[in-house]
Amino acid sequence: MLETEMEQKMTYSQNWPAYNEAQIKQKELFMQFLFDLCQDIQEEPRQTGKGRPRLPIRDVIFSSALKVFTTFSLRRFMTDMRMANRLGYLQTTAHFSMVSYYMEKEELTPILKELITLSAMPLQAIETDFAIDSTGFRTTKFNDYCREKHHVERKHQWVKVHLCCGVKTNIVTAIEVGEEHHSPDSPQFIPLAMQTHESGFTIREVSADKAYASKNNYNAINEIGGTAYIPFKSNTKIWGSRGRPDIPGSSQSKGSKSRIWRKMYRYFVYNQEEFLGHYHKRSNIESTNNMIKSKFTDLVRSKNKTAQINEVLLKVLCHNICVLISEMFESGIEPDFLKGDVVG
Fold first, then answer.
1. In this predicted model, what pLDDT tens digit does every residue of 30-40 receive, in sequence order?
2. Cα–Cα distances in Å, from 25 out to 97, 184, 237?
3. Is 198 helix (H, G, I), strand (E, B) or coil?
4. Per-residue pLDDT, 258
5. Considering the domain boundaries, does residue 238 fall inside one?
6. 211 in a domain, yes or no?
7. Whose CA is closest to 163, among 279, 328, 292?
8. N or C terminus of the chain: which is more exposed, having fewer CB within 10 Å?
9. Residue 72, C-beta contacts closer than 8 angstroms, at least 6 positions apart
């Protein structure tokens, strides 16, 4: 009830002149920022011998990301690729089928993850509070029911994505892509938080829902100087190692993990309104998921599993670049990706 009342009171202002200018110049700036990001990719030496030479990896990623940004099919996207070539962003205009071919390459996956991290770095001074959650992107494939004769309970297969985002700008700072039914939420909490921390962000708060409630998750954020705001389940009890309730100061209750767990449990129980005030920031990751899906659709067109993962990563990369463009006008930041580390 408290959470519902707080959500109804929250209002946000919009700097409309800055928003309008960012939207008008978005496609032009998107190509410029994407090109700058791709310059940090280390090219492999050109191989000599028979066969068609490989396309430059920078061109591959630029073309793939621009294709996802436009939301066009590969054939209709060719006009945008020729335009990018005339502007000097591409060395060559590849055949549309080559974009699909390179999307299936596993070596693109770690590069795209690094580019997502790199694209978030300009907002290190702005973001100190973060939220973690998972979401799904539907594919064009269907589950086993679809293969039955009468198509009973026709359901899409999904690509599951775990995200960590800043709650002020909705920038994605870390990402993991897993399988639909084999990628539980809680084990992804610490890797996402550590990726964010190691990329240079100062973590003050991390919000997540009840699926992430564990001593390890609370303790991991505490160790890097932050506080996790994860609500406890209704059946949560503070038990000692021998199955008895913890008694403060006893041998059963010693250990940093137990101390943080008990401290946050009491804070949740006795200061619930204040706790929920911090936890409410978690709703921003729902906004992040909605921003990505509404702008670049929640549909993954690729058929190959690796290509599906890469397509989702490209959606998130495009989202981050669009966030940077907005913050460029609203917050006055000037992204400079060429100062980052070499990717590849």
1. 999 999 999 98
2. 29, 39, 54
3. helix
4. 80
5. no
6. no
7. 292
8. N
9. 80
Q: What are phi and psi of 161, to 5 degrees?
A: -125, 130
Of 289, 278, 282, which is closest to residue 175 (Cα–Cα)? 289
Residue 67, C-beta contacts closer than 8 angstroms, at least 6 positions apart = 74, 77, 80, 81, 99
**83: three-class secondary structure by DSSP:** helix
Angle among Cα 281, 287, 293 to the nearest 5 degrees reads: 155
Long-range contacts of 86-89 (CB under 8 A, 24+ apart): 87/31, 89/31, 89/34, 89/35, 89/62
pLDDT tens, position by position, 91-111: 988 888 988 999 999 999 999
pLDDT in tens, 219-278: 999 999 999 999 998 888 765 444 445 444 444 444 566 889 999 999 999 999 999 999
**Number of compact structural domains in the chain:** 1
Q: Which residue has the higher pLDDT, 343 or 24?
A: 24
What is the Cα–Cα distance from 94 to 102, expressed in whole angstroms? 11
Burial class of residue 3 in the structure, from the number of CB atoms within 10 Å of its CB (0-12 exposed, 13-18 middle, 19+ buried): middle
Range of the domain at 24: 16-41+55-120+302-339
- Chain position carrying tokens 């690796």: 306
- E strands, the chain, are 129-142, 156-166, 172-178, 205-207, 227-229, 299-300
- Expressed in angstroms, the distance from the first to the final Cα of the chain is 49
Residue 198 gets the label, from left (phi > 0), alpha (psi -120 to 50) or beta, of: alpha
Mind giving me the DSSP string for 33-52? HHHHHHTTBPPPPPPPSSSP
What is residue 156's predicted lDDT score, i.e. its pLDDT?
67
- Indicate the residue type of 220: A
- Residue 34 included in any domain: yes
Instruction: Specify if 334 maps to a domain.
Output: yes
